[in-house]
Design a protein that fits this description.
This protein is of the alpha/beta class. It has two domains: about 290 residues, Rossmann fold; about 180 residues, Adenine-n6-DNA-methyltransferase TaqI, Chain A, domain 2 (Alpha-Beta Complex), CATH 3.90.220. The chain is built from 16 helices and 20 strands. Strands 3-2-1-4-5-7-6-8-9 form a nine-stranded mixed beta sheet, with helices on both faces. It has a five-stranded mixed beta sheet with strand order 11-15-12-19-16, with no helix packed on it. Helix 5 links the parallel strand 2 and strand 3. It starts with a helix and ends with a helix.
Length: about 500
């Protein structure tokens, strides 16, 4: 039998060839390679149903549902009928989608399997909300046995009709991909299954908290596949994104274990696979429901070593906040260089050798902010603080980069921290010098960075993420601080210092 998904790989390349990368990015459309589609289809449990009903939302050219149809008609126990509902509102690709439906019908006809396919060129979010609304006058909505998705990767405009519909439905999400997955899960029958490929960013952070809780309450997570390379999943679209593929079942009881696998790219036959207890992936007492992906024995060793550090920021009398100065909102108060009536303004560009090196001579960023009634709430009293970058470049070696703000290096009673920074503080004030230096050394250690990456799937480092981490005790931080003088030690030395601290009773 002709391989439907291979045929559609040619269609995908044709569509990509006739459209600009920017056009596809504007609507969040990245068509799925055939190898990924077949892998996603293989995640579903072997079929035992007579009648299968498949949802593909954001279907593109239809490679995902066709891969699963191909799987179903190739199995020993074929269903009696297959129905596919495909949503796609990109009018330019609907003709290819209709052709895919015809190919699926022909393939099913050869095996005696009844097939019905329907293309819906409409907004999936609006349609799905209407289908899943509960109320006195709401009729029974459509339900599916399977959903297979590569949803659009696009932020939701706060003033859009989509945002208003989702808010009215009680669905707080920041990106279309999470909305699509949330709605698709709601449209499954009990025992229904879902596979999706999306960015990994939903695994942590405050923006996807409501989505994580809703999804994990409805669905039992069975498997997650991680791509080791950011470049491989959608390489010909130049997408530099940490993507994951996951499989979940619509049931209230969580599975006891989760299969976690990983591959460099599309070489799924060479993937590493391990079974992990569910409560190691989603911690039972985690109020944010972060998803931890411990992929291999090296990750196991990181987790084991981190158990030596048990203190929370609350235990230490510390907290972490996002810098208060949003530069584009405070533009009229910014000054290129310090002058009378200003306070230092610190950006990530001021980090050097583990300390804040201010002012910066380049002139690309402001070095100061004017003191006024409008800016007084944006500043903090000068003292020892520890700063981290909130954003790293996509291929930067480290996710967490920290620096000490030393008040003796910068003569000013007040200081402003720009919004691209997080700052550690004690009740809004600074902390002891030795503690600040020890905390900065710990944050700059490879161990901390590796542990942070087990649940962080994007380049942003949120204050919420940093609060989830555990830290050395106050005494341990003070000992670590003794190793920091005028500059932070090099990476190898930092890691050796922390390793020795790990070995102490």
């Amino acid at each position: 039998m002709e391989q439907l998904s291979n045929t559609l790989d040619h269609v995908r390349r044709t569509v990509n060839g006739r459209t600009q990368r920017a056009e596809r990015s504007d609507i969040g459309q990245f068509l799925t390679p055939a190898a990924i589609a077949r892998f996603m289809a293989s995640m579903f449990t072997p079929n035992r149903l007579d009648h299968v009903r498949i949802l593909d939302a954001g279907a593109g050219a239809g490679v995902l549902f066709s891969a699963y149809v191909e799987t179903l008609v190739s199995e020993g126990r074929r269903p009696l009928s297959i129905e596919v509902v495909a949503y796609e509102n990109d009018q330019s690709i609907l003709s290819e989608l209709a052709q895919t439906m015809a190919r699926c019908e022909a393939a099913c006809g050869k095996t005696g399997t009844a097939f019905h396919g329907e293309v819906r060129g409409e907004d999936f979010v609006a349609a799905a909300i209407a289908q899943t609304e509960e109320g006195l006058f709401a009729g029974p909505g459509e339900r599916f046995t399977h959903a297979i998705l590569n949803p659009p990767y696009k932020k939701i405009n706060g003033q859009s009709a989509t945002r208003k519909r989702l808010d009215a439905a009680g669905m707080e999400v920041s990106n279309l991909y999470a909305a699509f997955v949330w709605l698709a899960a709601r449209m499954l029958t009990p025992g229904g299954e879902l596979t999706a490929i999306t960015p990994r960013s939903f695994c942590n952070g405050p923006y996807f908290r409501r989505f994580r809780f809703a999804f994990l309450e409805m669905m039992s997570l069975r498997r997650i596949h991680v791509f080791d390379s950011r470049k491989k999943a959608f390489g010909d679209d130049d997408v530099l994104q940490e993507n994951v593929i996951y499989h979940a079942v619509r049931e209230e009881k969580n599975s006891e274990r989760v299969i976690i696998s990983s591959s460099e790219g599309l070489d799924f036959e060479r993937a590493t696979i391990r079974s992990v207890p569910y409560d190691q992936v989603i911690r039972p007492k985690d109020r944010d429901a972060f998803i931890h992906l411990v992929l291999n024995q090296a990750d196991d060793r990181v987790v084991e070593r981190m158990r030596r550090f048990k203190a929370t920021l609350h235990d230490l009398g510390l907290d972490v906040s996002t810098g208060r100065v949003v530069d584009f909102r405070a533009r009229e108060h910014l000054r290129p260089q310090p002058e009378k009536g200003t306070a230092p303004l610190v950006y990530p560009c001021h980090f050097r050798d583990g300390f804040v090196n201010w002012p910066a001579p380049s002139g690309k960023k402001a070095n100061a902010i004017a003191l006024s009634a409008q800016t007084q709430d944006l500043l903090v009293a000068t003292d020892y603080y520890v700063l981290t970058k909130r954003f790293s470049s996509k291929e930067e070696r480290r996710r967490v980069v920290a620096a000490v703000y030393d008040p003796h290096r910068i003569a000013s009673p007040l200081v402003g921290f720009e919004n691209h920074l997080n700052y550690f503080h004690a009740g809004g004030k600074g902390m002891p010098e030795q503690m600040a230096k020890g905390l900065a050394l710990y944050l700059n250690a490879s161990l901390f960075d590796c542990h942070f990456r087990l649940f962080s799937g994007h380049t942003q480092v949120n204050a919420t993420d940093l609060r989830k981490m555990t830290y050395p005790s106050r005494d341990q931080l003070m000992r670590l601080g003794l190793h920091v003088q005028d500059r932070m030690p090099d990476q190898e030395t930092i890691d050796k210092i922390l390793e020795r601290e790990c070995e102490k009773p």
